[in-house]
Amino acid sequence: ESLINRIAAGEIIHRPASALKELLENCLDAGSTSIRVTVKDGGMKLLQIQDNGCGIRKADLPILAERFTTSKLSTFSDLSRITTYGFRGEALASISHVAHLSVVTKTKTETCAWKAYYLDGALVEGKPGQTPDPKPCAGNDGTTIIIEDLFYNTPTRLSALRSTSEEYSRILDVLTKYAVHNPKVSFVCKKAGSPSPDLSTPSSSEIPQAIRLLYGHSIAKDLLHVAFSSKKKAENEDEDMEEDSGPQDSGSWAAEAHFTNANYQSKKMIFLLFINHRLVESSRMKRALEAVYSGVLPKGASPFIYLSLQINPRDVDVNVHPTKKEVHFLNEDGITDQISDTLQRSLASQSN
Ligand code: ADP
Ligand code: MG
């Protein structure tokens, strides 16, 4: 049974960066404004994420790493909380099957923090002879998740990993993208023992500022911005779409994009795609948007595009598992066309 669990977990957690992505989303769901990541050996030895979010109640700790344990779906009609992929309560459980998982957490009402260790979905004692209860300890409000020895028991997964530096750069890439998408949240990433962070963002920033900080001035100075939706079809520049109230009707959607103009050229396209606040990939969308630039940029040159798309959770293909790289949703072609159109018009109008 544990072998099956391990294999299933390996399908969800592919590498340190995919574990990080799940944990980041948990931090953000918990309302954190500060997220600090510490990494040893590309996340294979240690991947630690500290947040200042709502914390986990002590009473919830015993079952935290059981499969399908989630605090995020209290009512059936609570659709806005469903993240994109019909995938609930699997991240921590999966991690506990392929790594050593520890959690330190404190809610505002608790007088001290609690620490718990998990193995194969269950709370375990920290040291031999101790009862498997959470242990009181010092700690700030919020949660620290500590993953050690990832894939220690799954040699095939371990051997599929690249070098520690390659895994670390994937971690930084995921963090960088989430930092752009969440400019109000401060992100820090450092190697364990290193005095200076490799990534550090302020809180209360805005997306263009985050892009400048993380991707550089040469991209940031050539950015255009559009925000638009299926209902109100317009290039109402600088008018943010409503946060937290995603599209409620089936078929309705909203999008916001920051993208480079004709002055910026890169060899490789940089594409950040968030659907319902989750970082995803869509080669179809990527190709379509790159094609918009074919009349704008010389051959071989590529743009930077950040695109945040909000669609009704019911319109996302729930049969596609979240870890499958490619995402699919209702009316994908129609939405892609409209986004391409809007970008095209915006690029055309600024070159006049
Ligand atoms: P899901 O996010 O789908 O609910 P997870 O396995 O990722 O499932 O997490 C299980 C539960 O653990 C969450 O529903 C949440 O209650 C709690 N949790 C995990 N990480 C955090 C965190 N950083 N802050 C607060 N609660 C958390
Ligand atoms: Mg989660």
From TrEMBL:
Residue span of region Disordered: 234-253
Residue span(s) of domain DNA mismatch repair protein S5: 211-348
Top-level taxon of origin: Eukaryota
Extent of Acidic residues compositional bias: 236-246
Subcellular localization(s) per the UniProt record: Nucleus
Similarity remark: Belongs to the DNA mismatch repair MutL/HexB family.
Name the record gives this protein: Histidine kinase-like ATPase
Species of the source: Mycena metata
Part of the intact protein present: 18 to 369 of 726
